[in-house]
Design brief:
The complex is a heterodimer. By secondary structure, chain A is α/β, with parallel strands linked by helices. Chain A has helices at 43-50, 68-71, 92-101, 113-133, 148-160, 178-195, 229-232, 235-242; strands at residues 5-14, 17-27, 32-36, 58-63, 75-78, 166-170, 198-202, 215-220, 223-227, 247-250, 256-259. Chain A contains 8 helices and 11 strands. Classes of the chains: A alpha/beta, B mainly alpha. Chain A binds chain B through residues 51, 53, 72, 77-79, 81, 84, 88-91, 94-95, 98-99, 101-107, 142, 155, 158, and chain B through 45, 159-164, 166-167, 170-171, 173-175, 177-180, 221, 225-227.
Chain lengths: 273, 280
């Protein structure tokens, strides 16, 4: 089977400036991969290139065996975001349903038999997916009243409900506390293993993900380094990637601290990466 | 009109519908109530009440301007609301941060222009009260047909874009990533809102349109989070407000806009009180 994502010497330019160059990266089916790196390293841009939302300036990209734009319907994507406003009055289950029918035009006609049958299947599908992410207890509550972790689970369910073969999540752990970050990491590991879904997760910090990841891709200075955590997050490898001396410290509980990373150049000015 | 209330609903109803002007008013009220129930529900969900208010205020210079240059007044409503909807849509595209400021500025200029047009043409239009606060006298058969056509167009549009619009309203970032044309939906919705506002302000006046546009939708969203039920409740509330307002205004010396607004406000307060008590 073709890998979920295969980038070969891929480069991306934004506004004429090179953001990524010579990125080679492979993500297998059912693999759970974290995309790490400092602010402005091009993590979100890499994800958008895989989704075909920004064109490649060089190299090639194959996603789910075809070109990125054609593969997009088979990708579940959770963009970088802020939480829902408290006053957003929609139930969690309706939010998940939007993942299934939110892009569909027209109104369903419930008196047609085919439509009724589809409705039943879809309802079951939504219930199973919510069950899978462990959000059944609060699926009927208003999304705005839920905690960040609960909202994140429902958003993951929304991205999963169409059975994507690749799930791309841009900093989903950002607004969560540490126990919730670990719980979501465990959930994603479980999903990737149980459903054979390749998961790519953009993160600032690798520590909540340790023990769940299959591999990491580390981005710095527009270049990428991929491999297991132990292969990539080492002083020699990161020093070479950054082109500056880097130290990697391992705490007694296994947590990693990367010391000495220089400030990343700001490729796109005010835009928060 | 020497209307007197018999307190027998059947007699009173028969009395009201004896007069063609009341029948037309009820027909028009019913049409705009359904339209406002739907458009208002999305407007409240999208937090565009201020934009909606501006669209309705723009109907004032639209109507007075049309009268000044000799166009049909109802055409003036639609042109003004359409232009304002496009302007707001463009402003929103540039920056959400400055939206309220620019919308507010447009609104004030619109009011001032309307006042000027009115002064230039006072002998034709009379005072501003009718345009601002509405009347149900003199809704013609032709106007009812026009309203029905506008409402059908707007509701058909909502039926087509309903779900993607819901997606784009709740979560524009994710919707955009899924390929939903968020920008185009935004403009389309403002156009629909403009149609609803232009139609409704012919009945309730430009300032009291919120009785039908905001109050029913806000009350419905308090009561139900489900899109289908919320929309249905919003329509029912708008119908109740329109019918009660027209019916009571018939027997009262106070204008219909006042009654509709009073019932709309009363309903909203009632729903909030009930919600606060029911919720633990």
């Amino acid at each position: 089977m073709t890998p979920a994502v295969q980038l070969t010497s891929a480069g991306v330019r934004l506004g004429g400036q090179p953001v990524l160059s010579n990125v080679t990266l492979s993500v297998g089916r059912g693999e759970f991969v974290a995309v790490l790196g400092p602010n402005g390293a091009g993590k979100s841009t890499l994800m958008r290139a895989i989704l075909g939302l920004v064109p490649l300036a060089g190299g090639s990209a194959s996603v789910l065996g075809s070109d990125p734009v054609r593969a997009r319907p088979r990708i579940g994507y959770l963009p970088q975001r802020h939480g829902f406003d408290r006053e957003t009055r929609i139930r969690g289950v309706d939010l998940v349903r939007l993942g299934l029918d939110g892009a569909r035009w027209g109104v369903p006609l419930p008196f047609r038999r085919a439509a009724r049958e589809r409705q039943t299947t879809e309802r079951a599908k939504i219930a199973t997916t919510i069950e899978l992410v462990g959000a059944s207890a609060y699926k009927s509550r208003s999304i705005g009243e839920l905690s960040g972790g609960e909202q994140q689970r429902l958003l993951i369910a929304q991205a999963l409900v169409r059975d994507p073969e690749l799930l791309i999540l841009d900093e989903p752990l950002d607004s969560l506390d540490i126990p919730n970050q670990i719980a979501v990491a465990a959930l994603l590991k479980r999903i990737s293993a149980a459903r054979g879904v390749a998961v790519m997760l953009v993160a600032h910090d690798v520590n909540p993900l340790l023990g769940y990841l299959d591999r990491v891709a580390y981005l710095a200075g527009g270049r990428a380094l991929a491999g297991t955590v132990d292969e990539v997050i080492t002083a020699p490898k990161l020093s070479e990637l950054y082109g500056a001396p880097i130290e990697v410290l391992r705490a007694s509980d296994g947590r990693l601290v990367v010391v000495g990373q220089p400030e990343a150049p700001h490729h796109h000015g005010h835009r928060h990466e | 009109m020497n209307a007197s209330l018999s307190f027998n609903p059947v007699t009173d109803f028969n009395q009201v519908v004896t007069y063609p002007f009341m029948v037309h008013a009820l027909e028009a009220g019913t049409i705009v109530a359904v339209l406002c129930g739907v458009a208002g529900w999305y407007m409240v969900l999208r937090r565009q009440s201020f934009a909606g208010h501006t669209l309705s205020v723009m109907a004032f210079p639209g109507a007075t301007g049309a009268a000044l240059v000799g166009l049909p007044i109802s055409l003036g409503y639609y042109i003004a609301a359409g232009v304002a909807a496009l302007a707001i849509g463009r402003g929103r595209a540039r920056s959400y941060a400055t939206e309220t400021a620019s919308v507010g500025t447009v609104q004030t200029v619109g009011l001032a222009a309307g006042f000027l047009f009115l002064e230039l043409n006072r002998n034709v239009l009379g005072g501003p009260e009718t345009l601002l606060f509405g009347t149900f006298l003199g809704v013609s058969q032709g106007q009812v047909v026009g309203l029905l056509a506008v409402a059908l167009i707007a509701l058909a549009l909502v039926a087509v874009i309903g779900r993607p619009l819901l997606f784009a309203s709740v979560d524009p970032d994710v919707a955009r990533a899924r390929g939903v044309p968020v920008r185009a939906l935004e403009i389309t919705f403002l156009a629909i809102l403009g149609l609803a506002v232009a139609a409704t302000s012919q009945i309730t006046g430009v300032l009291l349109i919120f009785a039908l546009l905001v109050a029913p939708a806000a009350a419905a969203q308090r009561l139900s989070m489900r899109p289908g039920i919320g929309l249905a409740l919003s329509i029912v509330f708008a119908l109740v407000i329109a019918w009660l307002g027209l019916g009571v205004a018939y027997f009262s010396i106070y204008p219909v806009g006042f009654w509709m607004t009073t019932f709309g406000f009363g309903l909203y307060v009632l729903v909030r009180i009930v919600r606060a008590r029911v919720r633990p």
